[in-house]
Amino acid sequence: METGSPLATLRAASPVILPSLLLCDFGNLEHEIRAVEEGGAQVLHLDIMDGHFVPNITYGFTIVEAARRITDLPLDVHLMITDPARYVSRFVEAGAALVSVHIEAVPDPRSVLDQIRECGAAAGLVLNPPTPLSAVEAYLVHCDFVLAMTVMPGYGGQEFDATVLPKIRDLRRLLPAEVLIEVDGGINAQTIGTCAAAGAEMFVTGSAVFRTPDYAASLRDLQNLAKSKR
Length: 230
Ligand code: DX5
Ligand code: ZN
Prior knowledge:
Layout: H1 7-13, E1 16-19, H2 29-38, E2 44-49, H3 61-70, E3 75-80, H4 88-94, E4 96-102, H5 109-118, E5 122-127, E6 145-149, H6 165-174, E7 180-184, H7 192-198, E8 202-205, H8 207-210, H9 215-228
Parallel strand pairs: 1-8, 2-3, 3-4, 4-5, 5-6, 6-7, 7-8
Zinc ion (ZN) binds at residues 20, 45, 47, 78, 184, 204.
């Protein structure tokens, strides 16, 4: 893979903090994106929820396209939707450079992952906290990154689930170095270190950035904490 993919850059830059727009002020989207970009963010994480696969509804193509117009940062689109295969190409057209789909939502993970790569984006598989590693093992060779949820998906601001840590360690042992591990949910100054020590390289943060007064300082502190625990 790698053609047109930002994964090699991210690997070199790791640990990478990915602000999740879920908790930003959508009335000031451009200001919010510029603030995290100027604060040193290297990727933006966009949470797509359909009210079916998860109980909450967020936004779709329009916001991804808007983010694409505002910034050149790679967009990491986390699909929490039923039947993601139907929408993958539209999200890549809208500007996604990384696309992840939930193992719990796809009957044929290999074909969706291949589809994401064929569209020119990096392909990620997501596991919810109760989903065992054995559920994804057969598909890891089709992944450019794996996202281990550290909360049940649906809402920002939830408490980190530390029972996921052994799974992150096992994933890091199983995966080749070029396949990055992303964590998402409850990542903050108290929890980022244990995830980094377990082997994660990409850290999604909603409230730990957008619910703080100084985005740049929060991003810098999180990155330093992740760095020091590797
Ligand atoms: C939760 C989303 C997360 C969320 C993280 O379903 O996938 O990306 O925005 O928010 P925090 O960091 O507040 O848990
Ligand atoms: Zn997410």
